Amino acid sequence: MTIDAVDPDAWTARDVPERIVCLTEDPTEILYELGEQQRIVGISAYTERPPEAAEEHPVVSAFIGGSVDKITDLDPDLVIGFSDIQSELAADLIEANLQVLIFNQRTIQEILDVVMTIGRLVGAEDRAHDLVEGYVDRLEAAAERTRQQARRPRVYFEEWNDPQICGIQWVSQLVELAGGRNVFADRASGKQADERTVTHEDVIEADPELIIGSWCGEPVDFDDYDERPGFDEVTAVAENRLYEIGSEIILQPGPACLTDGLERLESIIRPHA
Questions:
Q1: Which of 26, 73, 164, 167: CA 20 to 30 A from 217?
Q2: Which residues does 91 contact at the CB level (< 8 Å), separation at least 6?
Q3: Average pLDDT of the chain to the nearest whole number
């Protein structure tokens, strides 16, 4: 190709990504909260928030896997995903010469940082700042309510039942903010799921007063707790203090867990304080 064949109008100083594929729910919800949902061209099959997202955008991925062909056909200028679990999909997309951004947020602060980063990426930094300030106000108000509690009940948060996996770090932090005492807080910082596995004996020894389950992708089977050896000795089981939180509002590291997820945790924990 010669210089003469180059269109001098072919380039532009493009301010922000215009076609974004979201491999998980959290960037989708963030973009909607920012009022920038028109940039989304593809989403994850597990996207439930906001509900209209599933009607307005094509599904191109699950959580671990996705269709490289479908994503490529959408001609995205940015693909956003979450965590090392999506590393293989991310590698495939990079090999397909796509621009890929993978976040690895594990704490409340990191979730807030991601909201700000995505806001900057799409030219909505002021709106992102307002959102984060609103989330911080909620968090601080919850912390103040906890400081005024007479006591904090022992809580076991379970992400999966076989093997038993306790809550990830942002969930642990939210449990504490909501007035509980996470019995496995020392394991919550584990980045990998296998760093957060617990045994029947661990739970029995911790003797939680409340068990809160949120199993990824399927409803909690409360009968399962009755069938675990020795669990009849656990206070939460003996007193039937077993609760469920939808994974879409607590296990997605985005706006949902800081709002509806925190509110649901408080509704469970504070009556037992």
A1: 73
A2: none
A3: 94
